[in-house]
Design goal:
single chain; mainly alpha; Rossmann fold; Tyrosyl-Transfer RNA Synthetase; 2 domains; two-stranded parallel ribbon; 13 helices; 5 strands; globular; binds tryptophanyl-5'AMP
Length: 334
């Protein structure tokens, strides 16, 4: 890898297929940024264990996620795309950083509070220390920038706090990462309840556009999207449904809100919803086609998975060894 480029790190959980928010808030930005940086993209399967998984489905979902990353435009020969669990350094650094993280800090994490409420029967310690493992992911690769959706901002802040605390004690060990949160697309809301973020675990299937939904389903879901009775395409806090659709349309077409308002002036919501549905379906169609091809080519994906795990292990080991030495763990006698 060329040393002069800065390092970009990001990843997604390996649960179920991706939804439009994952794509517009994160994956699309990764594709746009990947030529500018040396990139590492993780399939965050260890993080997914915080929620009970069906093992066979889980393995399949992780592979689908790998194929979707590539199908969306991340070249696995130029970017290091790998499974988190294939690099043991994540868990090892995670433990060390647990010892540099205060419970008071973890208690403040809104995602922990939300997830505990959602999975009240399984509030495990992994859910609690989830942000520390995420900090380890990022710091292990000395990432300069981490492109994520708005919901991950707090996790980036704690990552920076942990890294700064560690550096203050041991010298400049970690690069302090900057979040990259897109101007549009960083917070895509549910189509059925636009005050709630779009999420793959939503019980109402009409709330969420899945990346593998067919064209008809996409258009149907947009037609059913909850809006308001004003019948004017206008952006505003008082119009969360229409504003969310405008945000989606703007992220894909690059048009500003003013341009969109002008385009749909005097036209009803029906026309606007159809236009949004069509532009999403058009954006996803080539990704879906490439995804099917990749899923059929087992040998190619397996080879990418293996080679990139080797690369990630090699790169991350440098940071891990440095950290182990700094904290005073005894070097192995070889
Ligand atoms: P995850 O798997 O929940 O989401 C993956 C990415 O998608 C973004 N996202 C959204 N963006 C806009 N609108 C939405 N409705 C929406 N829903 C999800 C998320 O912000 C995220 O960028 N903790 C991370 C995974 C992770 C990670 C990391 C990320 C683990 N280690 C290291 C970056 C760096 C997560 O749960 O993402």
């Amino acid at each position: 890898m060329e040393k002069e480029k800065k390092i970009l790190y990001s990843g997604m959980q390996a649960t179920a297929t991706l939804q439009l928010g994952n794509y517009l808030g994160a994956l699309k930005n990764w594709v746009n940024l990947c030529d500018e940086y040396d990139c590492f993209f993780g399939i965050m399967d260890l993080h997914s264990l915080t929620v009970r998984q069906n093992p066979a489905e889980f393995r399949q979902n992780a592979r689908k996620l790998y194929a979707l990353y590539v199908a969306a435009g991340l070249d696995p020969e130029k970017n290091c795309i790998y499974y988190q669990s294939h690099v043991s350094g994540h868990a090892e650094l995670g433990w060390i950083l647990d010892c540099f993280t205060y419970m008071g800090e973890l208690n403040r994490m809104t995602q922990f509070k939300d997830k505990s409420a959602k999975h009240a029967d399984n509030i495990n310690a992994g859910l609690y220390t989830y942000p520390v493992l995420m900090a380890a992911d990022i710091l292990l690769y000395q990432a300069d920038v981490v492109p994520v959706g708005a919901d991950q901002k707090q996790h980036l802040e704690i990552t920076r706090d942990i890294a700064t605390r560690f550096n203050n004690i041991y010298g400049d060990v970690f690069t302090i990462p900057e979040p990259y949160i897109g101007k549009t697309g960083a917070r895509i809301m549910s189509l059925q309840d636009p005050t709630k973020k779009m999420s793959k675990s939503d019980e109402n299937i009409n709330s969420t556009i899945l990346l593998l939904d067919d064209r008809d389903s996409i258009i149907r879901k947009f037609k059913k999207a909850v809006t308001d009775s004003e019948a004017i395409v206008r952006y505003g806090d008082d119009k969360p449904g229409i504003s969310n659709l405008m945000n989606i349309y703007s992220t894909i077409t690059g048009k500003t809100n003013e341009e969109i308002e002008r385009e749909f002036e005097g036209r009803g919501y029906g026309d606007f919803k159809l236009a949004v549905g069509e532009c999403v379906a058009d954006e996803l169609a080539p990704i879906q086609k490439r995804y099917e091809e990749l899923m059929a080519d087992k040998a190619y994906l397996n080879n990418c998975i293996k080679e990139n795990a080797d690369k990630a292990r090699y790169f991350s080991n440098k940071t891990l060894r440095k950290v182990q030495k700094k904290v005073g763990l005894t070097e192995q006698i070889r």
